[in-house]
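Per reviewer request, we include the raw input and output of the structure prediction for the construct analysed in the revised manuscript.
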Amino acid sequence: MRLTDYERNVQRDIDRWERGAGDNLLTQALGFVMRPVDWVFDQFVPDSVVDALTDALNGVLGTLSDASEWTYDASDLIEKAHEMEIEAEEVSDLRDADLEKLDKLADSMVSQNSLMAALSGGGSGLGGALFIAADIPILFMINFRLIQQIGAAYGFPMNGPEYKPLVMAIFNVAASGSRDAKSDALRELSVAAAASAHGSGYKGRQAQGTFREQIGHFPREIAKNLGARKLAQLIPVAGAAVGAGVNYWFTDQTAKTSFMLFRALYLERKERV
């Protein structure tokens, strides 16, 4: 199906994002400030610490493996869609709605989640290592729900365990921001788009095997990229500000990644139908 001018502009936005363009000033500033912390983490933090962070992250992600446990409120989403003059009776109807309106619907999901994440990070930064450990599951719960909300806003409800590979790809991009991670996520998205267009059901490129096999190398990569920033919360006095900033940064990156990927999923499905 032919794309509109607005949709072609969105495609160009997605291409620029994949190449690394378009980060906001806060993201750029935090990335600059954290470079020395990242370097220290890479040079001096032993593999055993990274392994411990990876195991902890595996545990957190394992509790989130059943997407239905942390689902969005579909009726609330449809109500918001109606307020924006988007006709839909079910979430799946949204994938055929006007993309410009869906962008506004998805954007309305972000601010509350970002605030919750920042408050959690700021509080944990005041409490030392134990509070940081408690903050990580909360941060991922908030961001997991955000991914679901944004996906649903484009008509793709993420309410099944088969979506783990795509969710993990989003988290990996949010934590690293690398072009390789973005390209990998877009490849995973193409699998979902083909399944949606043909009505065959999305299973992911790694949908078989144990939970650890399904999510592959992602937890270790996320642990390395997010670990240095979370440990920086232990800096005296500045811990609360760092904690709030890191959590806001991660949630902002999760939102941006979800926006780009679900818009790409919307467009690729439209072109395939």
